[in-house]
Amino acid sequence: MTGYPRLRDLGIVIGDLPTGPLNAITDVEGVRVGHTTVIHGDGALRVGDGPARTGVTAIHPHGQSVFAASVPAAIGILNGAGEITGRSQVDEYGLLETPILITNTFSVGTAHRACVEWLCEREPTLGTRDFVIPVVAETFDGYLNDIAGQHVSLEDVWAALDTATGGPVLEGNVGGGTGMRLFGFKGGIGTASRVATIAGRPYRVGVLIQGNFGVTTDLLVDGVPVGRELAARQREADADSGPHKDGSVIVVIATDAPLSDRQLGRLCQRGMLGLSRVGAIGRNSSGDLVLAFSNARENRIDRSSLDSVRSVFQLADTRIDELFLATIEATEEAVLNALVAARTMTGRDGHIAEALPHDRLVDIMRRFGRLQAMARTGSGG
Prior knowledge:
The chain has helices spanning 87-93, 108-122, 154-163, 226-234, 261-277, 321-341, 358-367; strands at residues 32-40, 52-60, 69-80, 95-96, 100-104, 135-139, 181-182, 185-186, 188-198, 201-212, 248-255, 287-294, 301-302, 345-346, 352-353. The chain is of the alpha+beta class. It has one domain (7-303, 320-365): 4-Layer Sandwich (L-amino peptidase D-ALA esterase/amidase), CATH 3.60.70. Strands 3, 4, 9, 10, 11, 12 and 13 form a seven-stranded mixed beta sheet that branches. It has a four-stranded mixed beta sheet with strand order 1-2-5-6, covered by helices on one side. A two-stranded antiparallel ribbon has the order 7-8. Strand 11, helix 5 (261-277) and strand 12 form a beta-alpha-beta unit.
């Protein structure tokens, strides 16, 4: 989707369920994604000047204002050494009423303020009758980026919100994922989708992740211990047994299936299972945060409605197992797409995050008998 390979372009197919046409979160109709990438400067760190290797990613849950038509949502935490603002209100009401923003740890405040200002310009009741608490999530990019310089501006956040579109989603070194590392290699943004058919009706589940976690020896690809194979051959520093300060991951799960906030909380848990399939263990210093929402039209909450009673539609719990599987598979593949799409980057003080070597990944998967001749139809690759 970026012009760079995705996992299926290498002949590696994850899971059993079919993907959507793009194999992306935007396969859920109405979901829009925008990125602003901030890259400038080279050489030694000079706080405030750079080098900057960062950005911000925006996700709109549907094609209209999510403030005017909020959607059921839930947030789950695997390990909480991270931040996602607005969580208490999402927990309380079971609703999402702002776009979702993902950036670096020190730019949460900027993204929060920019979102408030962006919404106030578009929603006339804000600041008088209504209030809003934006949902902003983060991972740390300080290895490559002058994070203390806070190079994400208000204008950058507005640009991500304004330029968000459906269709193909940029992956790898873009938006909030620009300066991130994943399993000892360059990381960033990744996405994937699945189609679950329930009682003859197809429902889509799309996932977008910002990946910044794991050591090389953790990495699993379709159950193959790729990280151990790589570390054994190149003697990665990550292969030692000493303590490791881990990074974080943000997982956003979208679906068009009519689900309640309680059921979306169950999808969050399955997103965590998807992370475990690629080798995430949620170390002490890791922030592993998962947000799920349903944009099914019948369950959007019209802010202008005066109804005192409303109907809620949801799938029966006995029929959502395939949505669980869809979430697990899409999360797993989204992480691996981020890893495959990312390119080698040099950041502050000459720090280098190398791209995952595709040739070695393919060789390992072939030796384990997990390589296919070509991508499965519908991979979006």
